[in-house]
Amino acid sequence: MGDREQWYTNKELFEHISAMQGDFKDLRHEMRETRNIIKQYNGLREKIETVEDKVDRIEAKTEGKKTFAEAIRLWGGWLFALVTLAVLLFDKF
Length: 93
Description:
Keywords: Membrane, Transmembrane, Transmembrane helix. The chain has 1 helix and no strands.
C-alpha cells in the first residue's frame, strides 16, 4: 500500500458525510428538545419558589396569630384584674 493510495473511495466518503449530516440533524433535534425541557424546568422552578414564598408568609402569619392568642391567654387575666382594680379604686372616691 503506497502513501498515495486512497483509504476511502469518493462514494464511501460521500456516504459517510451523508450519514454524519443525518446524525447532526438528529443531534440538533435532540438539543432543541433538551432546551425546551430546560425552559419548562426553569419555569416550574420559578413557580415553586413563588409557592414556597407564599407558604412561608402564611406560616409566619399563622405563627404570629398563635403567639398573639397565647399572649392574650397568658396576660389577659392580669389585664382584667388590673382594670377591675382601677374601676374599684375609682368607685371608692
